[in-house]
Every structure is written in C-alpha cells, then in structure tokens.
From TrEMBL:
Residues 1-24 form the signal peptide. Keywords: Cell outer membrane, Fimbrium biogenesis, Membrane, Signal, Transmembrane, Transmembrane beta strand, Transport. Residues 27-177 form the PapC N-terminal domain. PROSITE patterns: FIMBRIAL_USHER (PS01151). PANTHER family: OUTER MEMBRANE USHER PROTEIN (PTHR30451), OUTER MEMBRANE USHER PROTEIN SFMD (PTHR30451:SF6). Belongs to the fimbrial export usher family. InterPro entries: Fimb_usher (IPR000015), Fimbrial_membr_usher_CS (IPR018030), FimD_plug_dom (IPR042186), PapC-like_C (IPR025949), PapC-like_C_sf (IPR043142), PapC_N (IPR025885), PapC_N_sf (IPR037224). Its main location: membrane. SUPFAM superfamilies: FimD N-terminal domain-like. It is a multi-pass membrane protein. This is Outer membrane usher protein.
Length: 855
C-alpha cells in the first residue's frame, strides 16, 4: 500500500523516472453529456473513436479509388487480438462472391476455397496488404487490394454478373402533333411499342397521318419497322431479328429485313472502345507511370520492375500525342512520346469486331426491289498500331469483296486504305465489274488547335456499283414527294434523282475545325461526288464561325448544295446572336432568377434567290425546375412579308406538351404537340416522359411527388413510381431521389441506388420509403429522463433512433399509435417500453412534440 505521506509532486516525479510502470489513457465522463440527475446509457462502443452500431448499411463501394457499386452491406464490429474494438469501428462482411466481383484472382489464394458461401473473409489475414476503411458520415467504403492480387481487367470493367437484364414490361412511346392552318388541318401520330421479357426486346414502330382541307382528305397508317433483339453476353454481341440497318464500317449502311449478329462496342469498358495505342516501356523499379494527352492526365498507375504494356487507355480525343512520364522509386524520370491519331476503323491490339447479316434489302422506296443478300465483315486490331479489315456482300445479281488496312502513323496522323471489287447486274440486264478505292485520313495539330476529323477520298472505276444501286427497278428515274399548295392542289416535288448510266467516279470529303482560344472557333466541311459520263456532280459545303463574350454568343454560317438532275443550287448565309438579359441588366452572366434566365435573339439569313429574312425574339425558362420554356419572335421576309411566332413547351412529369402559333402574309397556323411514354409492369402502369431505348423504373411505394436528381420534370406519381428515361447501357447509372422535394411525412432510408442495364432493358431501382409522422418524444422513466445515448426502435414500423438530451427522441415515418423499445445496456433490466398515441392533427404538422412514459 502506498504511503499516504507521498505528495502529488513526488508522485509526478516517480511517474517521470519510472514511466514503464505507469500507464493511462484519456477518459471523458459520459455523465457530462446529460443533466446532473439523468442517467447515461452504456456508451463504451464510442470510447475508441467514432464507433457505430453493427448492422446493414447502404454504402458506396470503392476499390483502389474506382467506384464499384452502391449496395446494402453488412458491417460487424472490428476487434483486435486483445478483444478490444479497434479505432476503425466497423468492418465489412465480404464473402468470396464479393471478392470475385472486386476482381480478385481467387486462384492465387487457395485458403479462400475453404470458406463457405456467405462466410465473411478475414481480408487482412488471407490477403496481405489489403485494407478497408469505412467513412460512416459519407457512407463510403474504400477497399484497397494489392494490384498483384487482381485479375488483369481493364479500367472501368464491370463484370457481366452485375449487368441487369431488367424486368418484364410493356412499353409504349407516343408523339402526337397537330396543325390547324388557314387552308387545311394536319395530324400525325407516331407510336413505338415494345415488350421486354428476360433478355429479349420486341419493338414495333408505326405512324398515322391525316390531312383535311376544302373538299379533300387523306388518312394513312404506315408500319415502319418490327424487330426482336437480345444480348449475347459470351460473344459480347447483339442479335437482331427483323427490320434494322447494317453498319457503315466497311460497306455503305443498308436497310434490311432479316437477321444480324454483331459485336457491341458498348459492352466493352470505355478504356477498350475504339482505338488507342499500346504504351510499352521498361521500368527499373516499382515506378509510377503518368500519361498525358493535350495537357490532361488520362492515365496514372504503378508498374513493377521490368517490361510493361498499357493497353486500356481511354484518350480524351481522337487525336493528340501521348506524353509518357515514368517516375522511378529513386526519383529519376523517363519521358517519351507515343504519337496517336485514329480513324473510325482502327481497333486496339487484339480486338476482333465482327458483323454478320442475312435478309432482304429494305429501303422504303417504291423505286427499288428487295433482293435477298448476305453480308459479313471482320475488323482486327494488330500489333504496332495496324488494323486489318474486310468483308463481302452477296446477292442474286450482286457480289462484292473488300479488303483494307489502317495504321496509326505517329506524328503524321492515322490512315486507312481499302479496295472493294464488285460484280453487278443492273435493271436493264447489263453486267458490270469494277473496283472502288477508299482512303481516310485523320490528324490533330494540337499545338495549333487544328483538327482534321476526317479527310477522305473514294475513287471508283466505270463498272463499280453498290448493292443499293443494283436494287433500282429502272436505270433512270425521279422520286417525288406530294406537297399541297395554297389552292389545295397536290404537286409532285422532286425528292431525289438517280441515273445508273452515271456510275460514281470520285468522292472527296473533309471536316476541319480550328480553335482560336478566346476568339472562338471555326469549321469547314464539305463533300463532292463526281460521276462517269457526265460533268455534273453532287456538291455540299458548309463553313461557320462561333464565339462569345460575357455570356453573349454569336455565330456566322454558310452552306452551298448542288445535286445531279436538279438544275437549281441552294445557298444560305446566316447570322445568329443571343444576349442574356442578365448581361443587358448589368448583372453579369447569371441564371439566378426568371429574368436572368431570359435572353434576346437576333437572326438574319439570305439565300441564293435573294430572299432575305430578319427575325428578333425573346426566350427563356420558367418554373422552379426550369421545365417550362418559351420563345416569341417577330420578323420580316422578302417572300412572306411580316412573320411572327410564339411557342411554349412544358416538360411535365407524365410527358411533354407544347403549343405554338405562326403567321405570315398568307396564312395563320396553330400547332400543338404531346409526347410521352407508358410502362406496364408487375406493379401496375406508370406514365412518363418520352422513353429512351433503355430506361429505369423507380419504385418508392408511398413516396409521391418526389423529384429525381438531374432529371428535369421527373417526379414519382401518386403511388411512388417514376421512369427515368435514357439510361446508359453497361455502365453504372446513379439514381438519386431529391430529398428536398419530399413532404413532411415522407422519408427514404437510402435515397441513392445504382443500376447497370443491358441494351433495351427496363431496370428497377427500388427505394424503401417511410411514410408517417415526424415526432419529438420527451420520454421519462420513474420521473427521470431515460438514459442519454439509449438505442430506440418503434416496434410497428421498425424505425430506429437514439436518445438525446433530457430524454428527447426524434423519429420519422411513425404510425399514429405504437410502442417504443428503449435499450441502454445488455442487462436484463436495461430496457423499457414506451407506448404512445399521437393526435390526428399530427398528420398536418411538420414535427409533432409529445410526452411518453417508459416502463
């Protein structure tokens, strides 16, 4: 026993001289958290940092700083060998299935095979160098796995097991437009219907048109296309049966009715799509490699000593040399440049892209036959930046074969060259044979801001024809479209012209853009097609300049077009100006108010016939969600006199509605349009804005009128359902409910979900909503406030909370009558029940305040 005569000063000296025999730690008395006469619950789980209760939490999961998914995951208390809870608080329960999803090389760790399905893997023990960190405040789980422990998968790779083929559903897209004019009425209805079942997508497209005038009318229904489609995951391809179109990689695109099986680029991660060179090098140590393009870092990683190859780059543009920096462990640097440009045909090393088609030619023109044909193409990415490709087209009166190659030629850009040989029999039974040579070139002069996006030339001999030309019923002919004039007479208008005696000779095309920094940019594009046996040609040129200053934008453009068989040429020059009202009012560029979101416009144009048009107007957006747009213009035209228009468009929850009015010297027109989508699913019918090819069904039962982040006008209906159109296929789509739009009696446990839809799918993003009263309870037990920090659960709804100061408890989503279980320890007498009854007026209050007794 210590001598009572030892002074505090002596005790301090002894502790300093013999530190090994003294120990201690900082301690905060929980009693200070509550009034003097109130009890405090067992808070030992919080003594080692920011501890949280074990359980299931919905978290964002990141692996080596790469987002993987947002999902519910079980967390257990983290225990050290001495039995104490570690400072990390919680550790995730990751089974072998999750490790496979994270891309772990399971064969490299035989001990994992001994674990049962669903059993938590002791990560740090079985996979040396691995770590987990759970940020409870952000609900973010970071998992760090050694690079050597992972399979060699590309950046952005999402395992096929995560792809969601969606739910069974019936889909309908509609678009209706109407016009009431001075001389006639016109109505048009477009319908796209579909059926999803498992991986299959059945689609149909049709249109109805109706015209009525003085003594005449027309009524037509046109079935445009019908097809079935599904994903073939093992082949990373899509299968289409019915009406569709071929690709334009090797041969010109054609419409067909039949079957097509083709490689789907979208099923590959972004880092493996298109073309990028393989970056090779040799590292002396464990080095950091950084790759830049046009000044931006596009890749950064670490490589082991020895030779390496980086083949999963995702460049930011189609041209621009790659600057590689290798930083060794000792600080020395290697720097070199990998020249890079691409044309559309180039593929990465080792990539095979195929396309197989068999069916009847289908153009929609009554001037052409529908011969049966087959087509096959193959594009292969080879080493050293080469790409080889080829294909064939075969029909009864037509046969062609194509062979070609492409190359990334470094600082000189990228080129491809191919030749097609064809044998044809035309409508007059004449037989022909010829070749067509195609050259494509692309190059970016990054230092000068110039981009040759595509520079191409095709030369064809006299006897060369395409399958599209062979399908014509006549050697020469016009195709007309009907048009009503002001006297209700129908006049034929030339839509196109063909003369097979004029076989194609040479085709030149160019697309050049030039950036000018703060002074804007300009572009030039054009094409010219010449023919054998005639000096006429098809020519089209466009040029333009655009820039801006303090929110003001302006542009100048010009186009010129001339077609064979049509004597007149079209030339148009135009100038456009847009000035925000915020700039006119001296606010600077802003969108903070309705007036600031308005803008004034001016437009002027002149065509080859000398007809000039001037137009001024105002436009902008209204409503809190900026989903109501408007535009009013007034102008003058040499041909039509004074003109004017007014239009508005509302992007609503269940569709899009628009109204408009136009007038000129000769007539007045009123027009309207409505479009939207309808989805039938297992839980009922949901109306939506116009659907995309791939969509997300949001299910939050009971949460009505809740908005969806980054989706203009999209809100849940009265049942809590909504459709988010235009989802991105084979990629993570983040679906988030806007909590600011929820009413006082709606809460969502987790307002963010993540889905990975396949092509054409309707995937479901489900949210658990709590609908009920929000209340603050003042709970006492034996005349004293229940212990601070006690855990609380309402038994009927299952909602949980924690006791705060003076026995206060906040809970949401409560029924009007229920019972609270309050627990402050693990002992038999460490809990009590507090029944409560809320008055009916609580349903109209933001937060109800009531008292309850716990026993």
């Amino acid at each position: 026993m210590m001598n009572k005569s030892v002074t505090p000063l002596a005790a301090m000296v002894m502790a300093a001289l013999w530190p090994a025999i003294s120990s201690g730690e900082s301690y905060f008395n929980p009693g200070f958290l509550s009034p003097e006469d109130a009890a405090v619950a067992d808070l030992s789980r919080f003594e080692k940092g920011n501890q949280q209760a074990p359980g299931v939490y919905r978290v964002d999961i990141w692996r080596n700083a790469e987002f993987i998914a947002t999902q519910d995951l079980r967390f257990d208390a983290s225990n050290k060998a001495d039995g104490k809870v570690s400072a990390d608080g919680l550790v995730p329960c990751l089974d072998t299935g999750w490790l496979q999803r994270l891309g772990l090389n399971m064969l490299a760790y035989p001990a994992l095979a001994k674990l049962k399905p669903g059993e938590c893997v002791p990560l740090a023990e079985l996979i040396p160098g691995s770590e987990t960190h759970f940020d409870f405040a952000k609900l973010r789980l970071d998992i760090s796995l050694p690079q050597v422990s992972l399979l060699n998968s590309a950046r952005g790779y999402i395992p096929a097991q995560e792809w969601d083929e969606g739910i069974p559903a019936v889909l309908l897209n509609y678009s209706f437009t109407g016009n009431h004019g001075s001389y006639d009425d016109n109505y048009y209805l477009s319908l796209q219907s579909g059926l999803n079942y498992g991986p299959w997508r059945l689609r149909n497209s049709g249109a109805w048109s109706y015209t009525r005038g003085d003594g005449y009318h027309s009524n037509n229904w046109n079935n445009i296309s019908t097809y079935a489609q599904r994903t073939i995951i093992p082949l990373k391809s899509e299968l289409v049966l019915g009406d569709s179109n071929t690709s334009s990689d090797v041969f010109d695109s054609l419409g067909f009715r039949g079957a097509r099986l083709y490689s789907a680029d979208s099923m590959y991660p972004d880092s493996l799509q298109g073309y990028a060179p393989t970056v090779r090098g040799i590292a002396r140590t464990n080095a950091k490699i950084t790759i830049r393009q046009n000044g931006f870092v596009i890749y950064q990683s670490y490589v082991s000593p020895g030779a390496f190859a980086i083949n999963d780059l995702n460049p930011t543009s189609s041209s621009g040399d790659l600057d590689v920096t290798l930083e060794e462990k000792d600080g020395t640097l290697q720097k070199y440049t990998v020249p890079y440009s691409t044309v559309p045909l180039l593929q990465r090393e080792g990539r095979l892209k195929f396309d197989l088609v068999a069916g009847d030619f289908r153009s929609g023109s009554d001037q052409q036959e529908t011969p049966f044909f087959t087509q096959a193409t193959l594009i292969a990415g080879l080493p050293r930046g080469y790409t080889a490709y080829g294909g064939t087209q075969l029909a009864e009166d037509y046969a062609s074969v194509a062979l070609g190659a492409g190359k990334n030629i470094g600082e000189w850009g990228a080129i491809s060259l191919d030749v097609t040989h064809a044998r044809s029999k035309l409508a007059d039974d004449s037989e022909h044979e010829g070749q067509s040579l195609r050259f494509l070139y692309a190059k970016s002069l990054s230092n000068y801001g110039t981009n040759f996006q595509l520079l191409g030339y095709r030369y064809s001999t006299r006897g060369f024809y395409t399958l599209d030309e062979v399908a014509y019923k006549n050697i020469e002919g016009y195709e007309f479209a009907d048009e009503q004039d002001g006297n209700h007479n129908t006049e034929p208008v030339v839509q196109s012209y063909h003369n097979l005696r004029y076989s194609k000779r040479g085709r030149f095309q160019v697309n050049i853009s030039q950036g000018l920094g703060d002074y804007g940019s300009f572009y030039v594009s054009g094409s010219q097609q010449t023919y054998w046996e005639t000096n006429e040609n098809n020519t089209s040129y466009q040029a333009g300049y655009a820039s801006g200053w303090r929110g003001i934008s302006y542009s100048m453009s010009m186009s010129w077009n001339k077609s064979v068989g049509i004597s007149a040429s079209d030339r148009i020059m135009a100038f456009n100006l847009s000035v925000p009202f915020s700039t006119l009012l001296g606010h600077g560029y802003s969108r903070s108010s309705t007036l600031d979101r308005a803008y004034a416009t001016f437009a002027a144009s002149n065509n080859s016939e000398g007809d000039s048009t001037l137009q001024t107007g105002i436009g902008g957006t209204l409503l809190e969600g900026q989903n109501l747009s408007y535009n009013v213009t007034q102008g003058y035209s040499d041909s039509n006199g004074y003109t004017g228009s007014a239009s508005t468009n509302w992007q609503a929850t269940y569709g899009t509605v628009g109204l408009g009015y136009n007038y000129d010297r000769d007539q007045h027109d009123y027009n309207w349009q409505a479009s939207g989508g309808v989805v039938g699913h297992a839980d009922g019918i949901t109306f939506s804005q116009p659907l995309g090819d791939t969509n997300v069904l949001i299910k939050a039962p009971g949460a009505s009128g809740v908005g969806v982040e980054n989706q203009t006008g999209v809100k849940t209906d009265w049942r809590g359902y909504a459709v988010m159109p235009y989802a991105t296929v084979y990629r993570y789509n983040r679906i988030a409910l806007d909590t600011n739009t929820m009413d006082d009696h709606t809460d969502v446990e987790n307002n963010v979900s993540s889905v990975v839809p396949t092509e054409g799918a309707l995937v479901r993003a489900e949210f658990k909503a709590r609908i009920g009263v929000r209340a603050i309870f003042n709970v006492t037990r034996g005349g004293r406030a229940v212990p601070f920090g006690s855990m609380v659960r309402e038994e009927t709804s299952g909602v949980t909370s924690m006791v705060g100061d003076e026995g206060q408890i906040y809970l949401s989503g409560l029924p009007l009558q229920g019972k609270l279980l309050i627990q402050w320890g693990d002992g038999k007498d460490s809990h009590c029940y507090a029944p409560y009854t809320l008055p009916p007026e609580s349903l109209t209050q933001a937060v109800a305040v009531v008292s309850a007794t716990c026993s």
